[in-house]
Amino acid sequence: MSKKNQHVVPHQGGWAVKGAGNSRASSVHGTQREAIAAARESAMRQGSEMLIHGENGRIRERNTYGNDPFPPKG
After folding, report:
1. Does residue 12 carry a pLDDT above 90?
2. On the chain, which terminus has fewer CB atoms closer than 10 Å, C or N?
3. How far is the C-alpha of 71 from the C-alpha of 63, rounded, in Å?
4. Secondary structure (3-state) at 24
Protein backbone atom coordinates (compact mmCIF):
# COMPACT_ATOMS: atom_id res chain seq x y z
CA MET A 1 0.00 0.00 0.00
CA SER A 2 1.38 3.41 -0.89
CA LYS A 3 1.89 6.09 1.74
CA LYS A 4 -0.18 8.90 0.24
CA ASN A 5 -1.02 11.92 2.32
CA GLN A 6 -4.78 12.29 2.78
CA HIS A 7 -6.37 15.66 1.99
CA VAL A 8 -9.79 16.74 3.28
CA VAL A 9 -11.10 19.17 0.66
CA PRO A 10 -14.36 20.97 -0.16
CA HIS A 11 -16.44 19.00 -2.65
CA GLN A 12 -19.72 19.61 -4.42
CA GLY A 13 -22.38 19.13 -1.75
CA GLY A 14 -19.96 18.33 1.06
CA TRP A 15 -16.38 17.29 1.73
CA ALA A 16 -14.07 14.76 0.09
CA VAL A 17 -11.01 12.77 1.07
CA LYS A 18 -8.38 12.64 -1.68
CA GLY A 19 -5.05 10.87 -1.69
CA ALA A 20 -2.16 13.15 -2.70
CA GLY A 21 -1.88 13.31 -6.49
CA ASN A 22 -5.26 11.66 -7.10
CA SER A 23 -7.79 13.46 -9.27
CA ARG A 24 -10.70 11.41 -7.92
CA ALA A 25 -11.95 11.43 -4.34
CA SER A 26 -11.41 8.33 -2.20
CA SER A 27 -14.67 9.13 -0.40
CA VAL A 28 -17.27 11.91 -0.20
CA HIS A 29 -19.03 12.98 3.01
CA GLY A 30 -21.82 15.34 3.99
CA THR A 31 -19.80 17.09 6.70
CA GLN A 32 -16.18 18.02 7.20
CA ARG A 33 -16.17 16.15 10.51
CA GLU A 34 -17.09 12.87 8.76
CA ALA A 35 -14.44 13.44 6.09
CA ILE A 36 -11.79 14.16 8.75
CA ALA A 37 -12.63 10.90 10.55
CA ALA A 38 -12.28 8.91 7.31
CA ALA A 39 -9.03 10.67 6.36
CA ARG A 40 -7.57 10.12 9.84
CA GLU A 41 -8.34 6.41 9.70
CA SER A 42 -6.72 6.09 6.28
CA ALA A 43 -3.66 8.15 7.27
CA MET A 44 -3.18 6.11 10.45
CA ARG A 45 -3.43 2.85 8.50
CA GLN A 46 -0.85 4.09 5.97
CA GLY A 47 1.41 5.92 8.43
CA SER A 48 1.05 9.12 6.41
CA GLU A 49 -0.13 12.69 6.92
CA MET A 50 -3.65 14.17 6.97
CA LEU A 51 -4.11 17.72 5.68
CA ILE A 52 -7.37 19.54 6.37
CA HIS A 53 -8.31 22.31 3.96
CA GLY A 54 -10.77 25.08 4.79
CA GLU A 55 -13.65 26.17 2.56
CA ASN A 56 -11.24 28.54 0.80
CA GLY A 57 -9.03 25.57 -0.16
CA ARG A 58 -6.06 26.62 2.00
CA ILE A 59 -4.55 24.14 4.45
CA ARG A 60 -5.71 24.96 7.97
CA GLU A 61 -4.41 21.94 9.88
CA ARG A 62 -2.13 18.95 9.39
CA ASN A 63 -1.51 15.85 11.45
CA THR A 64 1.19 13.23 10.99
CA TYR A 65 0.58 9.55 11.75
CA GLY A 66 3.60 7.28 11.77
CA ASN A 67 7.22 8.46 11.83
CA ASP A 68 7.29 12.25 12.05
CA PRO A 69 10.58 13.55 10.59
CA PHE A 70 10.15 16.80 12.58
CA PRO A 71 8.57 15.90 15.95
CA PRO A 72 7.56 18.79 18.23
CA LYS A 73 10.15 19.91 20.77
CA GLY A 74 9.12 20.15 24.33
Report:
1. yes
2. C
3. 11
4. coil
Please answer whether residues 31 and 14 qualify as being in contact, where contact means their C-beta atoms are separated by less than 8 angstroms.
yes
pTM comes to: 0.86
Buried b (16+ CB within 10 A) or exposed e, 8-34: bbeeeeebbbbbeeeeebbebbeebeb
Say if residues 28 and 18 touch (Cβ distance below 8 Å).
Answer: no
Sheet bearing 27-29, strands edge to edge:
27-29, 14-19, 6-11, 49-53, 59-64
d(CA 6, CA 9) in angstroms, rounded, equals 10
Amino acid 69: pLDDT = 66
Residue-wise pLDDT tens digits, 30-46: 999 999 999 999 999 99
Residue 63 has φ and ψ, to the nearest 5°, of -135, 135
What residues form DSSP beta bridges with 49?
Answer: 64
